[in-house]
Amino acid sequence: MSVVEMNVSGQTKARADAKPILELQGLSKSFGAINVVKDVSLDVWPGEFVSLLGPSGCGKTTTLRMIAGFIAPNEGRIVLGGKDITEVPSYRRDVGLLFQSYALFPHMTVRGNVGFGPKMRGETSGVIADKVRWALSLVKLEGYEDRRPNELSGGQQQRVAIARVLAGGASMLLLDEAFSNLDAKLRGRMQEEVRELQLRLGIATVLVTHDQEEALAMSDRIVIMNGGKVEQIGTPKQVYSAPSSMFVADFMGRCNRIEGTLRQDRRAKAWYLDCGPSGTIKLETIPHPDAREGEECPVFVRPEHLRLTQSLENHEGEGLKGRIERVVYLGSRSVAYVTLEGNIPLQVHLPNKPGISDEFSIDRPVVVVPLPGAVTPLPE
Ligand code: ATP
User: Fold this and answer.
1) Which of 153, 269, 304, 357 shows a CA-CA span of 20 to 30 A to 201?
2) Residue 2 pLDDT class (50, 70, 90 cuts)
3) pTM for the predicted model, two decimal places
4) Protein residue with least CA distance to atom 26, ligand 1
């Protein structure tokens, strides 16, 4: 049985016992007087793919390095597989780290690179050869054993780096901006391959990234960090469609902020937002449990959840009147920059369909209508 298979069965047991494979408990780290990671707590479950996502300098790499053991926390504990590893040196931690730069040994062949971990542990040449063969087959690089890193493409080098981590037999993977060196197309392919491999092996993984799409595409859960703190932990859908703060709403994609006053139609059991001269939009549900009529209630709505129409007719008077300032063509969609009456800027995504000519031209009066359920009260 391979090391990872052993880990997989370990994870299966952990899942049955409902114990996290990794626990970060109140981790904090300061460099000099600057506190860059502040009381970060997180449980990673067996087989789970978790991304640490946030803007540059938010502390995600420092957090990953603390898990890997390259940096010691000032406060808090790190527990791996039920064992406190806070004081354990990095080379004794059962984690495999994949760097942005791959960090392959340039003078060694693919075989030498992939077999490095087992060799350092003093495994027999037969076991090393088995592990190299197994890991290279997982990343589909059989036949490349005798090449050196400079004889490989960027994607192939990354596969070798992944194979090296897998052959090392770690119980979890740590990926540090692992795809950011690749061009856009290859990046997408490697993200898919790594996720597929991760699911197949059932190996718990933590990825550090500043790329929202990458985190959304790959993760079971995303940890959004800001200024050293955790802002929100949730599934990709939760952090995108139900952000817990304005920071998360904004960071996870373009969002339009609309101010208005609440109005209730008791008979229809409906809530509306009166947005001054531009008009009124309907809220699907009570915006919050203590909502009252007349209350100022900022909301947000994603550009892809808005539609443009020519007039308020057929919309029961619900919609916001404005004027198109600019339309930017982006291939699969266009972005209409609209200014609502009352001088509120708004972005609306228009899907580009074949055979349809430009329906909305600049300077034209339009009505912006949200899709049902699209308007969400703005978190504080
Ligand atoms: P990026 O996406 O740019 O890599 P990040 O979220 O990964 O950002 P970190 O690398 O964790 O951020 O850095 C967090 C803060 O800590 C930054 O302000 C950085 O300058 C600082 N920092 C990181 N390492 C050190 C160090 N060894 N000494 C001093 N300051 C550091």
Assistant:
1) 153
2) very low
3) 0.83
4) 31
